[in-house]
């Protein structure tokens, strides 16, 4: 998440970039979407997911515009440095009157972009260097803005880790806790509660906490080291994810086609909207990864159209997954983690598929947990870092990993309600990352571009939503969502 300018990496075609982006967005959040759809009603869910998809696409174009502006600034600064070096080399021939001229930065303001473009690349706004969001925040925001950016990223990553820490033990508990009266029917999925027996005297909640402890002991130590996701591990987890999604859709369609679908979703249910909002925001999240995704694309002339196509495909996929789910299963039988609905014999007699679906989150999430934990730890380090300073060994190797690992595990101990965890993470931290930060990046980068290059300069990656109205619209929408979700939570707690 955080970080500065990194290598672009191997270039790939726009269509490969489209596939990568699709794969990035469609992740764990999609597995909680069917339950959220069923709770809010099919019509409300369809309207809201279309609108939130549009909003996510808009802010994605804001981030790409800011990336182009950041690349332009970096090129301009290098040009100015080269010019200053040239001036120093010829300083022996400088007259007294020349010394009284304004400095390099002031001179550049009187000849903004033309000289740079003549000496540099054909288009100074071309995105060729990967500038991460943390670096863009440092370039375009003041100190308070940078700290708020890191705070938002950190809260989002904490939510991510809490979701992962709960999802794996829930899946293991659901697969391994089989009681004597289990008949394998669809309706049996949600008949159990936390106090029911799992094995002998061990309750289901005890089994969940045992699995959580094992998960923490096995994967927690990676937080204290540096790990990264390899290409082959990424391919393997992506392949498993797509097999699971395709199998779920096919099995649900077969069941509906046979007339065995049990779902009768309501048209609209307003009480489910706040949670659906959080789930949808979380499921469309990609803004924080755009620099590493967009920069290696070889030809970026039509990148906005390709991203739009991606969002349309993702919207269609989410709708297909959710609608087949809500018409195949009754609302009360839909699990927070949709894969767990396919662990019953009534859905499929193939034991391998049942166990694959039940254990699918265990395989995929377990590979992501250490990566996200290390990313969160590094963001903590960046937030408190001071120029030229170093951390003591205890702080660097013990304190930062500990404050990274302990809070999400404690949250997972307190609750395993995945739908609520995803909803709250999306509604609050996701709101900031997907709406507020991109809107301010676009606004501040436009101001800086005008100041440095002049008002006549055109960013060739300027968002189609270039009018200031759209920035205000995004900010007002994010404020409305924050107030609405908070009010709903307070009212819900008051009723209890």
Write a structural description.
- The chain is an all-alpha fold.
- Helices cover 68% and strands 2% of the residues.
- The protein is built from 17 helices and four strands.
- It has helices at 14-25, 28-40, 42-89, 96-99, 104-110, 114-119, 133-140, 143-176, 204-219, 231-257, 273-283, 290-294, 303-328, 351-384, 393-414, 418-453, 468-495, and strands at residues 5-6, 130-131, 197-199, 202-203.
- Strand 3 (197-199) and strand 4 (202-203) form a beta hairpin.
- Helix 2 (28-40) runs antiparallel to helix 11 (273-283) and helix 8 packs across helix 15.
- The longest helix has 48 residues, at 42-89.
- It is globular.
- Residues 1-7, 95-121 and 179-190 have low confidence and may be disordered.
Q: For the largest beta sheet, what order do the strands appear in spatially?
A: 1-2
Mean pLDDT: 83
The stretches of 5 or more residues where confidence is low (pLDDT under 50) are 1-7, 95-121, 179-190
Distance between the termini: 38 Å
Topology as a string of helices (H) and strands (E): EHHHHHHEHHEEHHHHHHHHH
Major beta sheet summary: 2 strands, antiparallel
Radius of gyration: 25 Å
**Given the structure, what is the number of helices?**
17
Number of strands: 4
Structural class: mainly alpha
Q: How does the overall form come out from the CA principal axes?
A: globular
Beta-strand percent range: under 5%
The helicity comes to: 55-70%
